[in-house]
Specification:
This protein is an alpha+beta fold. Helix content is 21%, strand content 27%. The chain contains five helices and 19 strands. A seven-stranded mixed beta barrel has the order 8-12-11-10-16-15-14. The protein has a six-stranded mixed beta sheet with strand order 4-3-5-6-19-17. It has a two-stranded antiparallel ribbon with strand order 1-2.
Length: 438
Amino acid sequence: MRSDVRLTGARGAIAIQFAMLAFGFFALAAVVIDVRLASLAQQQMQVAADFAALEGLYERGFYPAGDPRVAARETVRRVFDDDLRPANGDPMKYGAGPLLALTGGQPGSNGSALVTVTAPGVYDPVLELNTANARSGDIVLGRYVSSDTAHFEAADYSRTDFVPTPALSSTAVLVRLRRTADATGLDRVPGVSSSGPPLPFLFGLASTMHAEPGSSYNPRTDGLSVSATSIAATRRALEIAGPGPNYGYTTLQTFVLFSAGSGVPAGQPFPRPPGQPYPAGSPLFVDFWDTTPAGTPTDVIVRPDGYLERIVGGVGSGRAVGYVSRILGTQDSPVTRVGQIADIIAYPFFFPGETFVPIARSVSGNMKAIGFGWVGVEDISAGAGPPRARIYRGVGGLRIGGPNAVSVPALAALAADPALVVAHAGFPDAITAPVLVR
């Protein structure tokens, strides 16, 4: 009889202990399941925001013919679609997390609430275009402040590292995706911003979780807010890729053009690679890129030895503004990356039309590619003799069709040569390319 009493007491003690520990178990489940579900939704939103910011900035290169806002919005729609065609529906239910609703719960605690999945089952974001360019919008055009290290965003969505600007002067695109309760009134403004509902706590409702005294946020009723923000900005191109115009890419010119930079007197020969003296009759090198105004024509003779000799008064001046080039040590590989040594090649050939062109400067004893520019080239050859070309220096900026601002070999070359860093940042009208900065 006594043993039965003891057994009953033991059972009762275990039941009490389990009841006390259950709150901890459910709190742990809230972290493992509820928070992980919100984290997964945020990751899905971040992927879409990253792609949208980059695509928006790519389209900015075609502005005003292209619309970066529409490009960003449509990119998000395609990311959250099963076959990249949003118009035909989404039977696979891809989206930025599930649409869950808690209804009928007790006031304050939300206890005994019924969990339902609301149509269409997942949150498919459709961003607002924000043509007014409000800083709280889904898509904001502006300028990235690279010197800022705080990367702080306030409750009104003002940021220390991003300044909204008109489209024509913008060099960066910010994209936001949100799932919030819209506590500030800025998250669901027609034409400006959009937001899905927050993700509710499920297992967390069985824990002791509660609102902080004096706080308007109650996790039991307000759930978890998640958001994703990406900023794509332009950076000077480090590499020009792509197989050429037959594949939809703008071609890379066969020659390099000279940038003297500071401290190199006009008319002074630029250094040749070590151990390679100038051939007899070589012209003196003069700056072209830094001192020639954009759009001003410069006529040159493309000599059999590869030099681009400036024409003055209808004849060669003995001054070269560039030369047909290859990577040092190769037979005919074009200069495609910052830091490559640009060697001359005796091959009088060029591409007519608008093209990318490597810019070369004397850096650390070698003629190195320091970046890329944009040129227009006309064939003005007439009769016998070497071919002649008319070169127009173009305006730099964002161009589509090959520029890449992320190149591991080029970054390694910059890290190894401080003088190359200065040269890369120091010439005007550089070609730029989109890159994610936040």
